[in-house]
Write a structure and sequence with these properties.
Number of helices: 3
Distance between the termini: 45 Å
Helix content: under 10%
CATH class of one domain: Mainly Beta
Keywords: Signal
Radius of gyration: 29 Å
InterPro entries: PorZ_N (IPR048954), Secre_tail (IPR026444), WD40/YVTN_repeat-like_dom_sf (IPR015943)
Structural class: mainly beta
Strand order of the largest sheet: 1-6-5-4-3
CATH topology of one domain: Immunoglobulin-like
Largest sheet: 5 strands, mixed
Number of strands: 70
Pfam families: PorZ_N_b_propeller
Protein name: T9SS C-terminal target domain-containing protein
Shape: globular
C-alpha cells in the first residue's frame, strides 16, 4: 500500500538536510508530480524528477516523499537531473539556468552558470550527467564542466560560430572525453586546456543527434536510431524507432523510450524486454527486472501499469481557486491583451478538484479532445457541493457555461448540461461566476452583443426553474472580471476602463427591470493613470478594497457609500521618512481578507504582501526569491478561515502557507505558543501566540510576577521578540502569559520557557 510520509524520511534516506530561508514548516506545495523527466536509482530506492520537484519511492515499503521549493529546493521548472548513489549527490538544473546541488551536507543554490559574452538567449539547462565528482552540464550555449566537490564550474565550451550559438542537447563524459549531442552532429573533446575552444572540437559523427548517456559504454541517438560502443567504435541497434524521447544506459542495459513504448536491450545490443505504456513517456529505467516509465501525465508507471507518484493536481497550471474547507476547485484558463483575448492552455486542462482526500481530474477533459477549453472560473453550488458550474471563455465552439455532477464513488464528474452563450464566439464570452447568500447564481460576460448589433459588458443570472441563463447589459465597457457579491449587490471590476460597476438587483435576480447601477469612476478617486479595475474585496469594517492596474483604493462604508458620490482613498505609508502611496502604479491581481481583517495583496511581478488591517504596515512580503512562490505573479489568493491556510495560485503551481490567524472571534480559541521552549541556539526569531480573541490584552510576567512585556493584540495572534520592557532580551526561565479579551469576559494563560 502506498503511503505518503514527511520529508524527514527523505532526509534520512539520502543524508540530506536543508536550512535555507525560502522554505519552512509553514509551507506546503500543491504541485503536480505527473510529468516525470528523469528516473535515477539508488539502493532500494527510485528518485524521479518532475517539473516542480523530485519524489522518492521506496521499492520495498512503497513510501513516497517529495522535495520541492516548499521544503528545500530553490526553484521550480526542473529541466535536468542526475544523481550519483556512491556519493549521495544530486544535481538539479532549472529552466532559468540555475542549479541545486544536493549533498549529505545540504542543498546549495548555484546561480553563476557561465554565459559567454554576447549570449543573450535562453539559459535553460538541457541535460546533466554526473561522472564521479564531476558533472557535464548541457545548455543552449554549449557545455560546462561542474566540480561537485568545490561546487563551482571549472571549464566551459561555448558552441558558437560567428554570432550563432548551437545548443548542446545532451552531453556525457567518458574516459575524460566529453561527447555532446547536437543538431549538427556528435561533438567530442578531451577535457584539457583547449576544451573551451570550440574550433578544436571534433565531429565524431555528422547528423542530428538528440540523446546520449554513459555507464561503462556510451549510447547516443538521433530521433530514430540508437548507437552504442566504447567511445572509439560504435554499433547500431538494428531497429528503427518512431521518435526517441530518451535513452538511458545502466551497467547491464540500454533503455530506449520511444513515444509510448519502452525497449530494453543488453549493453551488447540484444533485445531483452519491452513495454507498451499506452501514453506518452519522457524517459524510463530498468530496475530489478522491471520497467519504470516516466510518463508525461501519470507519474511513474511500472510493468504492471501501476501509477506511482505523490498525490497532486493533474497539472501545475492554475489560474483561479475556490476553497471550501479541505475541498478545492482549480480553474486553469487565462486571458491576455488587457484581460480580453482568450489565452487557453494548449493542454485543454479545464479544472481540477481536491475532494479532501485526493485530487480528481474529470475524464470529460481527457475524452473531449476536440473542444478548446479556457476555464476562467469554477464554482460549486453551496446547496450541493457535488454540483459544479464552470465557464469556458474560448472563442470557439464549446464557449459557454457547463454544469457537472461529481460522483464520489467513481471519483469523476459527469456533464449535466452545457449552456452555450453565443453562436458568434467573439461575443458573450463568460468570464466568472458567483453565488449570493440566497444561492442565486450570477455570471459576467465579456462583449455581450445587444439587439442593435453593438456590444457591452454583460451580466447573466441562472434561472433554475427554466434551467437557463438570462442576460442583461452592464454598460461602460465590454470587458469584465469575475463578479463579487457583497450585501446583496454585485460588484464588477472593468479591466479595460477606469471604472467599477455596482449593481443593486433588489434581491430579485431574475427581474432586471428594477435593477439600479452605480458606476465608480476616476472622478471618485480611482488612480488617474489607471486603465482598468482588476479586483475587489471587502473587509470586516465594510470597506471595499479595490485593485486597479495602477494601484489600490479604499471605499469606506461600502454598503452605503456607493449611493452618494463616494470618495476613494489611497493608503499612504512612510518609506525612509518620505510619505508615499502604497502600490502606486502597480497592477493588483487579487486582494483577500483573513479573519483578523489583515489583507493579502497580490501585485503583478511583485509577489504577495501581507498587510495590517488598515494597510499601513507591511507584516510580510513573499516573493519567489524569499519564499516557495513559483513566480512573482500570483493570479489568485484564497484563505481558509477555519484553518488559517492561505493558498497562492500561479500559472506555475499552487503553494499553501499556514498563517497564524484562524477563526478569530471576540473570545479565545485554542491558544498555542510556538516554538516552546525557545532555545536560542536553535531559534532566533519571534515567539508566536495564536488562537487569541479579536482584541486581546496581553501581559507577560516572570516567575516573581514582574512585568516584562505587555501589548494589545488584534487579529488573533501576537509575536513577542523576547525583549523586556527596556528592550533587552529576557533571561533564561519560565514566563507566564496572562490574557483577557476586550471586555474581560474571557481569559487565557500560557507558559513560555526560554533557554538562552
Amino acid at each position: 500500500m502506498k503511503k505518503i510520509i514527511l520529508f524527514s524520511t527523505f532526509v534520512l534516506a539520502l543524508g540530506i538536510f536543508h536550512g535555507q530561508s525560502i522554505s519552512s514548516k509553514k509551507w506546503n506545495d500543491l504541485f503536480s508530480y505527473n510529468n516525470v523527466l528523469a528516473i535515477k536509482q539508488t539502493q532500494g530506492e527510485i528518485i524521479a524528477a518532475t517539473e516542480n520537484g523530485i519524489f522518492y519511492y521506496h521499492l520495498t515499503s512503497g513510501e513516497i516523499t517529495k522535495l520541492s521549493k516548499a521544503n528545500g529546493l530553490h526553484e521550480v521548472k526542473i529541466t535536468a537531473f542526475d544523481y550519483n548513489p556512491a556519493t549521495k549527490t544530486g544535481l538539479i538544473g532549472y529552466r532559468n539556468g540555475s542549479m541545486d546541488v544536493i549533498t549529505p551536507s545540504g542543498i546549495t543554490y548555484i546561480v553563476d552558470i557561465p554565459i559567454a559574452t554576447g549570449f543573450n538567449g535562453d539559459k535553460r539547462i538541457n541535460h546533466i550527467a554526473i561522472t564521479g565528482d564531476k558533472a557535464v552540464v548541457s545548455a543552449n550555449y554549449g557545455v560546462s564542466i561542474f566540480d561537485l566537490k568545490k561546487k563551482e564550474f571549472s571549464q566551459s565550451a561555448f558552441f558558437v560560430t560567428g554570432s550563432t550559438f548551437e545548443p548542446a542537447l545532451e552531453a556525457v563524459m567518458h574516459d575524460n572525453v566529453v561527447y555532446a549531442a547536437t543538431a549538427t552532429g556528435l561533438k567530442t573533446h578531451e577535457i584539457n586546456v583547449t576544451f573551451p575552444v570550440y574550433s578544436n572540437w571534433q565531429t565524431l559523427t555528422a547528423g542530428s543527434f538528440k540523446h546520449t548517456d554513459v555507464e561503462g559504454i556510451i549510447a547516443f541517438s538521433t530521433a530514430n536510431t540508437v548507437y552504442y560502443g566504447s567511445g572509439t567504435a560504435f554499433n547500431q541497434i538494428p531497429q528503427t524507432f518512431a521518435d526517441i524521447s530518451d535513452i538511458v544506459v545502466t551497467e547491464q542495459h540500454i533503455i530506449v523510450t520511444d513515444q509510448e513504448r519502452i525497449y530494453v536491450y543488453t549493453t551488447g545490443g540484444m533485445a531483452q524486454n519491452n513495454l507498451g505504456v499506452g501514453e506518452t513517456c519522457n524517459t524510463a529505467n530498468y530496475i530489478g527486472g522491471q520497467i519504470y516509465a516516466g510518463t508525461k501525465l501519470s507519474g511513474l508507471v511500472d510493468t504492471s501499469k501501476r501509477k506511482i507518484k505523490p498525490d497532486g493536481p493533474f497539472n501545475n497550471r492554475a489560474y483561479r481557486l475556490y476553497v471550501n474547507g479541505e475541498k478545492l476547485w482549480v480553474a486553469t484558463g487565462a486571458r491576455a491583451d488587457r484581460y480580453n483575448a482568450s489565452a487557453p492552455d494548449p493542454l485543454n486542462l479545464g479544472f481540477y478538484y481536491f475532494n479532501g482526500m485526493q485530487w480528481v481530474y474529470s475524464s470529460h477533459f481527457l475524452d473531449n479532445t476536440t473542444t478548446v477549453y479556457n476555464v476562467l472560473d469554477v464554482v460549486p453550488n453551496p446547496a450541493d457541493f457535488n454540483e459544479v458550474f464552470f465557464v469556458n471563455y474560448t472563442e470557439k465552439p464549446g464557449q459557454g457555461v457547463y454544469k457537472m455532477k461529481y460522483e464520489d464513488t467513481g471519483k469523476d464528474f459527469s456533464l449535466t448540461k452545457f449552456y452555450p452563450t453565443s453562436v458568434n464566439h467573439s461575443f458573450n464570452r463568460p468570464t466568472g461566476l458567483a453565488f449570493d447568500q440566497n444561492n442565486a447564481l450570477f455570471g459576467t460576460l465579456t462583449a455581450l452583443q445587444l439587439p442593435n448589433g453593438s456590444f457591452t459588458s454583460g451580466l447573466m443570472v441562472y434561472d433554475k426553474a427554466a434551467d437557463e441563463f438570462k442576460t442583461s447589459g452592464l454598460m461602460l465597457h465590454n470587458t469584465v472580471q469575475k463578479p463579487v457579491i457583497h450585501e446583496g449587490k454585485i460588484w464588477v471590476p472593468l479591466p479595460r476602463t477606469n471604472a467599477l460597476m455596482i449593481r443593486d438587483y433588489k434581491n430579485t435576480p431574475l427581474n432586471f427591470s428594477d435593477d439600479t447601477q452605480y458606476p465608480i469612476m476616476d472622478q471618485n478617486g480611482l488612480p488617474s493613470s489607471a486603465q482598468g479595475t482588476i479586483s475587489v474585496a471587502f473587509d470586516k469594517n465594510d470597506d471595499a478594497w479595490i485593485g486597479t492596474d495602477a494601484g489600490l483604493r479604499i471605499m469606506s462604508d461600502a454598503s452605503s457609500a456607493y449611493l452618494s458620490d463616494p470618495k476613494l482613498e489611497s493608503i499612504i505609508i512612510e518609506q525612509n521618512g518620505i510619505p508615499e502611496e502604497l502600490f502606486r502604479d502597480n497592477l493588483i491581481h487579487q486582494i483577500e481578507v483573513d479573519t483578523g481583517n489583515h489583507k493579502w495583496v497580490s501585485v503583478d511581478r511583485g509577489g504577495v504582501y501581507y498587510l495590517s488591517p488598515n494597510g499601513e504596515r507591511i507584516i510580510k512580503h513573499f516573493t519567489k526569491e524569499n519564499s516557495p512562490l513559483p513566480t512573482n505573479s500570483v493570479t489568485d489568493i484564497k484563505v481558509d478561515h477555519k484553518t488559517g491556510k492561505v493558498y497562492f495560485v500561479t500559472f506555475e503551481g499552487i503553494v499553501m502557507y499556514q498563517s497564524d490567524v484562524v477563526d478569530v472571534s471576540s473570545n479565545f480559541g485554542n491558544v498555542l505558543v510556538y516554538p516552546n521552549p525557545v532555545v536560542y541556539s536553535h531559534f532566533k526569531g519571534h515567539v508566536t501566540i495564536r488562537g487569541l480573541a479579536e482584541k486581546t490584552n496581553i501581559r507577560i510576567v516572570d516567575t516573581a510576577g514582574n512585568l516584562v512585556h505587555q501589548a494589545v493584540a488584534r487579529g488573533g495572534f501576537h509575536e513577542w521578540n523576547l525583549n523586556n520592557q527596556r528592550g533587552n532580551r529576557v533571561a533564561s526561565g519560565v514566563y507566564f502569559v496572562l490574557m483577557t479579551n476586550e471586555d474581560g469576559t474571557d481569559k487565557a494563560t500560557a507558559k513560555i520557557a526560554v533557554v538562552n
